[in-house]
Design brief:
By secondary structure, the chain is an alpha+beta fold. The chain has one domain: Class II aldolase/adducin N-terminal domain (L-fuculose-1-phosphate Aldolase), CATH 3.40.225.10. The protein has a seven-stranded antiparallel sheet, sandwiched between helices. A hairpin with a 4-residue loop joins β1 and β2 (40-43). It is built from eight helices and seven strands, in the order αββββαβααααββαα.
Length: 231
Amino acid sequence: MIMLNDLKENVCQANVELRRQDLVLYSWGNVSGIDRSKGIVAIKPSGVAYDELTAEKIVLFDLDGNVLEGDLNPSSDTPTHLELYRTFESIGGICHTHSKYATMWAQACKDLPCLGKTHANNFYGCVPVTAVMTQEQIEADYELNTGKVIVERFKDMDPSQMSAVLVANHGPFTWGKDVDKAVENAVVLEEVSSMAVGTLQINPQQQGISQTLLDKHYLRKHGENSYYGQK
């Protein structure tokens, strides 16, 4: 069982890793984690620079958004994280950045196509972009509605097979079984986003890989009969 001090330290270090991986500038972005046994979420405080972040500054709250521990305001994206935790019970960590290339795809309001093995090893198909938010959604409970448009986009998708999303006009969110995996998925998403931009500059007519090749690369790593890596 994860102790809450461990949860806070893990979330702190995951946030710091965003800076080490050059996925964020200043205080942009955030990582959260959840202790499912207690229903407690930990997240980076709003506006705190990464080089000033400590485990003691991490904010704890319940799934209804009530702050349980912490003197600082939690990330402004907290309602988005909560909506994802409430809906996708398999995820244990969530990461949000404004990394350059993934954000380009989000701002372009385009799905990120799966053009090769690197992408297929990690994401089972195109990384989806959400619908553009309406004026009503923006003006009322904007951060909560950001979570809702993500959930709506995934109504026919498995979040365990597609651990990333591009919020239209905004940026990427990734998730995983824990905070470390959520950050790893953000790193990979940025890399394949960059590769896709370069590939389409070289060949604007390039199409996505076949379903057969996608299945081979994704399922050999993540499928029931996977054989990639060490057991």
